[in-house]
């Protein structure tokens, strides 16, 4: 965009010169005009540097099972990012499918070892919630344990896409060419989800420690402690996982568990689940993936287990289009529920 504005200024300059009398300008006059043009161009460069970068995407598709058949719109996102100063930036991301602000924060980055972030953003919990946003994720749906224990479709009632409002310190140490060996995240949050003020006086605490011994490999542990609602109901989560993602190979696994206080004096519920992912970038545009994903909503009840077996194909023929096909077999331990076959197709248009 800067090149376009600069070119327009030069064309205007040449047009103005063409309309002037044919008298030969002096060297001093030409120099003055060139300096004036440079000053205008520099001013526009500074203005353009302050404008946000605009991007976004639309995700829509179709899902079929024995009990349903439906088209859907999953996400419609508009993303604005920019820099206020060399070490101070911001991000605003808006969801239009079900209108809400999903990201709105400012970040100060004085050193690699210490960064400060304030606003609404992803909770620093788990590998997939922090490292695999929708435009990078290989599947249409996130795993059950993440969705049910980290604010996507949480047992406690939150539906917040793994986000919350709060403040976070983060940083990294022992920097190598493409990665840092050790990194940390520590945050304090409301614990109530997107765009919602805290309903009690306590604050939720989230911590994550990540080790990257070699390029492509990360081992992470996460901890969440909080109290939600006016009744100060317990919400505690633990997570540990590992991921290797480099070259053609992707291998990832994670275990997440937690305790959730139930409303109405119903006690507490212990839940756990884990998943394992494998993928191979067969070509530059094509990637087959598989996932085993199991979750127990109540660890004391064996029939609360749901296990999903998913096979998928990711095809990205051009930079601005992702095509995903997933087949999932849902295996319910409970005799009261019927197992299902689910086929999903999703297209993502990126701008």
UniProtKB/TrEMBL annotation:
Tell me any Pfam family this protein matches: Porin_O_P
Q: Which UniProt keywords apply?
A: Signal
Q: Which InterPro entries match?
A: Porin_dom_sf (IPR023614), Porin_O/P (IPR010870)
Query: What domain of life?
Result: Bacteria
Q: Which residues form the signal peptide?
A: 1-18
Designated name of the protein: OprO/OprP family phosphate-selective porin
Q: Which organism is it from?
A: Alistipes senegalensis JC50
């Amino acid at each position: 965009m800067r090149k376009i504005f600069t070119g327009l200024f030069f064309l205007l300059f040449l047009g103005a010169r063409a309309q002037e009398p044919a008298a030969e300008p002096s060297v001093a006059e030409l120099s003055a005009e060139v300096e004036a043009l440079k000053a205008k161009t520099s001013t526009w460069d500074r203005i353009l540097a302050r404008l946000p970068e605009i991007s976004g995407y639309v995700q829509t598709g179709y899902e079929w099972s024995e009990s349903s058949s439906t088209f859907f719109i999953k996400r419609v996102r508009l993303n604005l990012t920019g820099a206020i100063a060399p070490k101070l930036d911001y991000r605003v991301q808006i969801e239009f499918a079900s209108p809400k602000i999903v990201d709105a924060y400012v970040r100060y980055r004085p050193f690699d070892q210490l960064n400060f972030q304030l606003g609404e953003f992803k909770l620093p919990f788990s590998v997939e919630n922090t490292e695999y946003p929708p435009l990078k994720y290989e599947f249409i749906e996130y795993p059950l344990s993440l969705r049910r224990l980290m604010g996507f479709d949480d047992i406690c009632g939150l539906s917040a896409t793994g986000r919350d409002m709060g403040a976070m310190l983060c940083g990294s140490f022992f920097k190598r060419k493409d990665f840092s060996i050790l990194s940390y995240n520590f945050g304090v949050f409301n614990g109530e989800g997107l765009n919602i003020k805290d309903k009690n006086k306590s604050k939720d605490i989230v911590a994550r420690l990540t080790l990257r011994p070699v390029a492509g490999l990360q081992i992470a542990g996460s901890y969440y402690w909080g109290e939600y609602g006016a009744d100060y109901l317990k919400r505690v989560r633990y997570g540990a996982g590992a991921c290797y993602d480099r070259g053609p190979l992707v291998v990832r696994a994670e275990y997440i568990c937690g305790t959730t206080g139930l409303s109405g004096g119903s006690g507490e519920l212990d839940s756990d689940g884990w998943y394992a992912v494998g993928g191979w970038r067969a070509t530059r545009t094509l990637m087959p993936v598989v996932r085993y994903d199991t979750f127990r909503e109540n660890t004391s009840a064996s029939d609360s287990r749901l296990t999903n077996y998913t096979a998928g194909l990711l095809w990205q023929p051009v930079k601005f289009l992702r095509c995903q096909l997933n087949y999932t077999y849902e295996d319910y331990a409970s005799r009261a529920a019927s197992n299902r076959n689910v086929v999903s197709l999703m297209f993502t248009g990126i701008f």
